[in-house]
Amino acid sequence: MHVSIAPGPRIAVRSRVLSPIVTCTGKGCLKRGLNREQIAAHSLIYMIGTPSCPDPEEEKKGMLKDPIAIEPATAEQKLKPMSRVSSPKYTIEHNNKVVDVGNVAKDSRHLLDAYSQDTLR
């Protein structure tokens, strides 16, 4: 599974869907104004080789999905520690510009597939 960041930022998965990557000014899903359903739609996303930074308060508020690991395309590719990705919900148009950041790690692919299927139901 190939992952690219599109302007916004978002990840493009298999060139079919876009998923927003958010940090909410470093607060992750603890940002004010998010309801439990919105929080539950997010999971942590991180680059292999860097620590995933789950926040226990986010779990208490409903972010229970397992983290998604990314194998960086280059050593320079980074994600901020509070990066979160919401379940995919946008179809990619042919003219979206993206930046290659890597691939979803083999151990995380089933998670992204499951989260995508949940959204489509």
How many structural domains? 1
Major sheet: arrangement of strands: 1-2-3-6-4-5-8
Give the SSE string.
Answer: EEEHEHEEEEH
In terms of structural class, how would the helical and strand content be classed?
A: alpha+beta
User: Can you give the helix content as a percent range?
Assistant: 10-25%
Q: Work out the oligomeric state of the chains in this entry.
A: single chain
What's the total number of strands? 8
Average of the residue pLDDT scores: 79
Unreliable spans are none
Give a written overview of the molecule.
- With 121 residues, this protein is of the alpha+beta class.
- It has one domain (2-120).
- The protein has helices at 36-40, 56-60, 109-120; strands at residues 2-6, 10-13, 17-22, 42-47, 68-72, 84-86, 90-91, 99-104.
- The protein has a seven-stranded mixed β-barrel.
- Helix 2 (56-60) links the parallel strand 4 (42-47) and strand 5 (68-72).
- The chain is globular, with a radius of gyration of 13 Å.
- The mean pLDDT is 79.
Give keywords.
seven-stranded mixed barrel; 8 strands; 121 residues; alpha+beta
